[in-house]
Specification:
Distance between the termini: 79 Å
Oligomer: single chain
Low-confidence stretches: 1-5, 7-11, 16-34
CATH class: Mainly Beta
CATH superfamily: TolB, C-terminal domain
Strand content: 25-35%
Largest sheet: 6 strands, antiparallel
Structural class: mainly beta
Helix content: under 10%
Shape: globular
């Protein structure tokens, strides 16, 4: 034998090495999942207009604590706020993440998951992170479709469902402007023709504008909203990394909200330094654009709070160089003190690592009077905090166009007593009756919250 080993012995050697590698990887995963630090402050300390921001606590091994995705036991639901009731509007969906209610009351849901990202989180650390994402329920292939749900009987249950658009590329945001339905794929904004009552669109989508994507595409969820006359779209484009560790060149056009002309597709950066903005809302009393933003990871369980903020034209919100104004992140090299000096302080903190994604104004809600003026926020839940944070839907009361008091829990109970995730809330929207709809991408349910 040329290599001095018989084929059976060679095969046994390969099996032994593969087994050893698998054991080492598993041990590494267990070590990473079990190490890190623990929060010293409650989530409430990192919530509100003036959150507590302790010194960074950067550890060699980042904190990894995930609620394993289990789904809802038969007959169970989340717990809703006093004076409200929760029930399932639709079940048996495939990773529903985002919602949009059409003028006729039909509910669109993006059944979607991450696109292939071969260069994101490579190496052992990347392998560990991919395992943790799968544990959290985010590891499967994307259904790549927009499904239409219709309550045909007025009972608050979607008795009819159909695939409105299929063959998409990890779709997320949706908005109807006249007879044009815009969909934000992970790599482009597409326009589809829509007529009232349509249940299936066969026409191919016309590309309005390409969006930053590529082989990393770290924050792939793109959302959009239109201005009052439908001439402009505002599109969220998340960062390509945690804190620009792939180089600032990889962040071109990212960590921003774009303004896109619906006719020509020309675009500009409307606001920047927003690490991963998702939900977008026009605040009804002021007309200002508001967004929820996911902040950076791996500097401690108490940092950095995600936030809800008004978004100013031309403003810079800190990422990656700093957070909450002039709090410099020294992991980023080289620094940009000129940009740090201009960084806007967000309006309202939503707690560290809560993964606040969904956002909906409560204008027109039929829920109790306590929810009449403010915003609902879907908090998908943490992976980089011990103990867990998020995993619920909250309401932030507003007065005079700004947050006015502490948040109120609207929907809880997504995590079991032993730390498993029955569900994880994402998108939120009001239906035509003013009830609150919540997309749950682990439970594969759209929940509906009403007054009792």
């Amino acid at each position: 034998m040329q290599f001095g080993i018989s084929p059976p012995a060679f095969a046994r050697s390969l099996r032994a090495r593969s087994s050893l590698l698998a054991t080492l990887c598993a041990a590494t995963a267990a070590a990473l999942a079990g190490c890190g630090e623990v929060a010293t402050l409650p989530v409430s300390a990192g919530t509100g207009p003036e959150p507590t921001l302790p010194p960074p606590n950067r550890t060699l091994i980042p904190t990894i604590k995930v609620a394993p995705a289990k789904g809802w036991p038969s007959g169970t639901t989340p717990q809703s706020a006093p004076g409200t009731h929760v029930s399932a509007f639709a079940t048996g969906l495939d990773h529903p993440r985002w919602l949009y209610v059409l003028p006729n009351g039909d509910v669109l849901v993006a059944e979607t998951n991450a696109p292939p990202k071969p260069d994101d989180n490579r190496g052992i650390r990347g392998w560990v992170m991919s395992k943790q994402k799968a544990k959290a329920g985010a590891g499967g292939p994307s259904a790549n479709r927009i499904t239409l749900l219709r309550d045909t009987s007025g009972t608050g249950v979607a008795a009819s469902r159909s695939v409105l658009i299929e063959g998409l590329n990890s779709p997320f945001g949706m908005i109807l402007v006249g007879h044009d339905l815009y969909v934000a794929d992970s790599d482009a904004v597409l326009r589809f023709p829509y007529s009232d009552g349509d249940t299936h669109i066969t026409a191919p989508g016309a590309k309005v504008v390409d969006l930053p994507a590529g082989r990393i595409n770290h924050h792939w969820t793109k959302n959009l909203i239109a201005n009052a006359d439908g001439s402009k779209l505002y599109v969220t484009v998340g960062s390509n990394s945690n804190v620009a560790e792939n180089g600032i060149e990889a962040e071109t056009g990212r960590a921003a909200i774009w303004e896109v002309d619906t006719k020509s597709g020309t675009h500009r950066v409307f606001a920047s330094g927003l690490r991963n903005a998702n939900g977008l809302v026009w605040e009804p009393s002021s007309g200002a654009l508001w967004a929820v933003v996911n902040e950076r990871d791996e500097i401690g369980s108490d940092l950095v709070p995600d936030y809800l903020t008004s978004v100013r034209d031309g403003a810079f919100y800190g990422w990656p160089y700093c957070y909450y104004g002039s709090h410099v992140d020294d992991r980023v090299k080289p620094q940009r003190p000129d940009l740090v000096a201009t960084a806007i302080v967000p309006d309202y903190a939503l707690g560290p690592h809560t993964a606040s994604l969904g956002l909906a104004s409560s204008a027109g809600t039929s829920l109790p009077a306590a929810f009449a003026n403010g915003m609902f926020v879907g908090q998908h839940g943490s992976w980089n905090r011990d103990p867990l944070s998020g995993y619920k839907v909250i309401f932030v009361p507003f007065a005079d166009g700004k947050p006015a008091s502490a948040p109120v829990d609207v929907l809880t109970g997504f995590v079991s007593a032993d730390g498993n995730a029955y569900g994880r809330p994402v998108g939120v929207a009001l239906d035509r009756h003013g009830a609150l709809l919540v997309a749950d991408d682990v439970g594969n349910v759209v929940w509906r919250v009403t007054s009792q």
